Each structure stands twice: as structure tokens, then as C-alpha cells.
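Hi L., both proteins are below.
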Amino acid sequence: MALEIGAVVEGEVTGITNFGAFVQLPEGKVGLIHISEVSNVYVKDVHDFLKDKQKVTVKVVSVDERGKIGLSLKALMPTPPPPPKRTQERRKEFTQAKAAPATFEDKLSQFMKDSDDRLLDLKRNTESKRGGRGARRGV
């Protein structure tokens, strides 16, 4: 029986890498759960979500012409609910407050800060190209 896209199958995690986890499927086939398909939340390390020899239920999301099988745990998870309306209202208020017109003094202050930062970056870059901190060559 060939695996079809959309099929839900059970398997066992056989290996974990920094980019995902390999799963042994029925009939001796092996598929990969890419790190982006492990969970609905940000996954920094796959080991935080999966362990070796763990039984998992996965959904087949792709099968390419070379026989590589793409799997997903995320596709079987319920989608997270949207943020509460109150949070959306606060974001809107914050965005509106942030977009309030700045006074001349605020604009001038920001310009001076940006200018100083640019000059400091320029000075650092120039020093590094000359050998840094005023060192003389050939001494």
C-alpha cells in the first residue's frame, strides 16, 4: 500500500536531528517531520517535543518523486484560538498612541541621536580599516 498525501499513520521516532525527526512508518518506510511541522509554537530544539523510540501519529504532507516522505505533527493539532478581543484593542490603542504626531523637539532629539550613532559607526569602521586605535605601520 502506497502512502497518500493526507493519510494519518502511526510510527516510531528513530532519530532526531537539529532540523527534524525521522519516523519509521509501516512497511519499513521512513519519513521526516521537519522542525517547522513539529508544533504550533516555536521549536528551538526538537528534543523538547520528541524522544527516541516514541510512538507518534503523523499526517503525510508530501511524497516526492524520489520517495521522500514529509510528515507533520502540527497538521493534527488543533489550531490555537485567536487572541482575546481585549488584547487586539490594546494593540490598536498602542499603535495609535505610537503614531501620534511628534513635536519638533522630539524629531530634533531623534535626529541628533541617529546622527551620533551613524558617526560612531563610521568612526569604528574607519579605524578597523586603518589598523585600529591609531597604530602606526612599520614601527
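That was the first. Here is the second:
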Amino acid sequence: MKHLRGDSEDDFMVRESRKIAVIGAGNVGATCAFVMAERKLGDIVLLDIYEGFAKGKALDMSQGGQVLNYDGKITGTSKYEDIADADVVVVTSGFPRQPGMSREDLIGKNAEIISQVGAGIRDFAPNSIVIMVTNPLDLMTYHMQKVTGFDSNRVIGQAGILDSARMTHFVSKAVGCSNEDVQAMVLGGHGDTMVPLPRYTTVGGIPITQLLASEEINAISERTASGGGEIVKLLERGSAFYAPGSAAAIMAESVLNDRKRMLPCSALLSGQYGLEDVYIGVPVLLGKNGVERIVELELEDSELESLQSSANFYKSQLRDILGY
């Protein structure tokens, strides 16, 4: 048992330490682990095929505990048995995008990796909730759910949180306001077919349609959809990791602390928005059971058409490339 701080400085409670596994110790996985350590979410296991790589990053983070005031145990490993009994597993492993590549170019390579990772999670962390980050996100989340056989509410993709965060940043710059006052909403697949929703994007509760010209909104929506590619092009030797890793950590926090946050995530639809048997980004209530509710927004015909078109694009890839 360990003492964890409660909601106030004087409120302490005793509970068993939570265990979080992060599969893939690259930039995204390491960033996610670091943010979760800072937020004191529990003991963290970094797993990577290169054991020294995982152990080195875990040791480096551990040595920062006194500086950043966290005490949770952070370990590195290459063995799936070390993730046994994890409450949450964040999956970041896979090939990153290179300049000129789309997320969909990674399908074949990363599907093989997810098959191996999913088997490890199924065998050693059968009661965990899985948060997927590997691209192409919606396809790999579907594939993970099939490999593990877990109930769909326990396999969730990190999609709209990152895309909405990117849109938030662009809106805040255009309006000239704080990031904190912007609430953006982006649905659909985590790729070029994503669906930014300006009507549901607000600044201090005011829709951006009342604050920005339509040309500015269209430019922001387009830049949001290509936000990851813009960073890939600038970096030349890699892809985004600070924002994706942090977004996955926020999802883990909502699950572990049962915060029931309303967040846009990739979830398996079963009739919502007129869609069946496809993972796609929609607003969900995220709590201790994973996806506890899928929220259906009232969409205009053009918005619904865009969302369904995005989903059908991924359904065709599931069928034609992954054989589902």
C-alpha cells in the first residue's frame, strides 16, 4: 500500500499502487511515461524490444524524481511478463512516419507489430484498459481489439484529443487568447479525413464562427488535418511526440482516477452516427471502465457526411489491407 495525495493538501488516502505499462520506449512512449510520472499516476513499466533502451530511459526518469517531486517506481524491460496485472497499457510501438509518408503507409508494418504486442497484453495484462497511439491509429486500434479479444470499451484510440489540441493552438493564435480558453472539437479518423467542427469549437464559450472569418476557420481546419505531417516535414527525421505522448497520458489519468472526462477518442461504433463496426474519433466519457458512453452530437448534414466518409475510408482499408 502507498499514500497518495487526495483532492486537497490535507486529504490523504491509502490505496494500492496502480500499475501502468507503456509499450514502446521511443519519444512518444517516453514522453507519455514522463507526464504520467509527474502526475503521480502509479508505478510505470516501460517495455521495448531493446531492453537497454527502456531501462536507460526509466533510470533517467527515476533520477529526476527528487527534482520534480515524484516517487512512483519507473522500470524498463523487454519482457511482457513484467507488465503483469497492469491497470492501463499505453501502446506506442511501431514505425514512425517519415517525410512524404501518410499514416496509412504504415499499415502493413505496424499491423505485424500490433499482433505481437496484442498477444503479450492479452496473455499478461488481461484485465487492462488499452490506450492506442500507434499509427494509423483507427486501424491499429481495431486490430488491437481483435487480437486481444477485449470488450471494445477497454480498447481506445488516442485521436481527437491530439487533433483538438492542435486545433486549439491554432485557434488561440488566431484569436489572440490563451490556450486555456479554447475548447476545440475534432472528430473522424486520425488522418487527412479528420473532421474539425468549428460550430462546436469555442473560446470562453463563444463559437469561433462568431470570432473568426470563414477563411480563417477553413485555414485552421486544413492545418489541423495536416498538423502531424507539418511536424514530420519540419523534423525531417521523426514525427511529433510531445503532444501525442501527453494526450495519451491524459487519457490514462482519466481512466485511473475515474475522472469521467468528455474527450474525443477513437471508439468502436455500433450504430452511432449511422456507423457500425469501425473505430473512429467521437466524443466519449472516459472513466475507470474505459469508454463508458459514446456521445452523439447533433451534426449538420455536411458534417455527418464528412464523418461517415472518414469512417468508410477506414472500413475499406480494414477490408482491403487487413482482411477484416
